[in-house]
């Protein structure tokens, strides 16, 4: 029924010659009534990871595969995501797929989706809502586990060390599940290791430009060169910005100098790890399109998808990498 309503709206748009994006079937005359309509609200394009995540969704939710994808790029603003969801509800899409920028602030709009009987699938990050029935499924990473992988490596890598371990922490978008989990792992470890010292906690907002800016500011304010053992970067783009800032200020990065730790494991970060400038790369898998489709197909068949589905991820050091492995990586 909903599908019919949306298609009627789209068909009317075609008749009126509007630019509402209605597609036609292979004969080019009317919209394909069999398509499952997905309204998708993506955070933005702040990182290489995010771009790979959007591509994975677009590849799966294509017309050839039986979907009409209404893709909205929120340009890193929660209010844009909320507006997009309300528009999807008005359009009576079949499913809403939401990558929430941060965990809080979703109760009202997801309640509206529930009242319109539109299942919501949370992807990548979580939404911290009082009523779990406001979303049908969540598919993404276990960010606390990712942080724990990084911290475990720090524990074993610096076990023998008697002196203080100086750490700079550059965080991702504050309040996002990825930031909260990765930060929680590091902060808990600092609490329990008396000789780990947090030199600075900076906001890198998951972007290369911001990380470069805050790291440059920090280093410029330090008289001479400070001993920095670890820079814990909450994603690859932060690591690229930090690496550039450190090198410009004369710091040597790698096992014998500043140890950069990063999350995502995009090709670029793995290449910097292979060449020795990044010490540890923890994987965060953006290729979630097929898993989201599985959840939707389960619901199409009248079933209930798993409430939380976490993807398998691993950590890489230089010893684990080869050029061939990086070349065949999908992102
Ligand atoms: O939520 C996943 C995180 O968001 C990725 O680590 C980061 O690159 C992205 O922007």
Report on the architecture of this protein.
The protein is an alpha/beta fold and about 325 residues long. It contains eleven helices and twelve strands. A six-stranded parallel β-sheet has the order 2-1-3-4-5-11, sandwiched between helices. Strands 7-6-8-9-10-12 form a six-stranded mixed β-sheet, sandwiched between helices. Helix 2 (about 50-60) links the parallel strand 1 and strand 2 (about 65-75). The longest helix has 16 residues, at about 175-190. It starts with a helix and ends with a helix. Mean pLDDT is about 90; it is low at about 5-30. The structure holds alpha-L-arabinofuranose.
Helix coverage percent: 25-40%
Structural class: alpha/beta
Radius of gyration computed on alpha carbons: 22 Å
Anisotropy-based shape: elongated
- Main β-sheet, spatial strand arrangement: 2-1-3-4-5-11
Q: Give average pLDDT, whole number.
A: 92
* Helical run tally: 11
Bound molecules: alpha-L-arabinofuranose
Low-confidence stretches: 7-30
Relative strand content: 15-25%
């Amino acid at each position: 029924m909903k599908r019919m309503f949306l298609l009627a709206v789209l068909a009317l748009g075609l008749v009126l010659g509007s630019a509402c994006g209605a597609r036609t079937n292979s004969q080019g005359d009317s919209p394909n009534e069999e398509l499952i309509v997905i309204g998708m609200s993506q955070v933005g394009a702040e990182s290489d990871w995010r771009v790979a995540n959007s591509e994975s969704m677009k590849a799966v939710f294509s017309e050839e595969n039986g979907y009409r994808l209404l893709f909205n790029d929120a340009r890193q603003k929660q209010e844009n995501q909320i507006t997009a969801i309300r528009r999807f509800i008005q359009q009576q899409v079949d499913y809403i797929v939401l990558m929430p920028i941060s965990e809080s602030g979703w109760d009202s709009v997801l309640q509206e989706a529930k009242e319109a009987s539109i299942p919501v699938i949370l992807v990548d990050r979580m939404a911290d809502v009082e009523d779990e029935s406001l979303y049908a499924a969540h598919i993404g990473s276990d960010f606390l586990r990712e942080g724990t992988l990084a911290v475990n490596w720090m524990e074993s890598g610096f076990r023998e060390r008697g002196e203080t371990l100086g750490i700079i922490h550059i965080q991702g978008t504050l309040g996002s599940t990825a930031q909260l989990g990765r930060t929680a792992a590091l902060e808990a470890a600092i609490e329990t290791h008396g000789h780990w010292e947090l030199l600075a906690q900076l906001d890198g907002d998951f972007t290369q430009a911001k990380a470069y800016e805050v790291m440059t500011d920090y280093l410029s304010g330090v008289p001479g060169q400070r001993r920095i053992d670890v820079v814990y970067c909450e994603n690859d783009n932060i690591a690229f910005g930090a690496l550039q800032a450190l090198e410009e200020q004369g710091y040597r990065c790698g096992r014998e100098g500043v140890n950069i730790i990063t999350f995502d494991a995009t090709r670029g970060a793995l290449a910097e790890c292979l060449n020795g400038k990044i010490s540890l790369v923890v994987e965060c898998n953006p290729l979630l399109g097929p898993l989201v489709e599985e959840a939707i197909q389960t619901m199409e068949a009248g079933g209930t998808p798993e409430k939380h589905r976490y993807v398998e991820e691993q950590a890489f050091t230089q010893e684990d990498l080869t050029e061939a492995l990086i070349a065949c990586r999908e992102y």
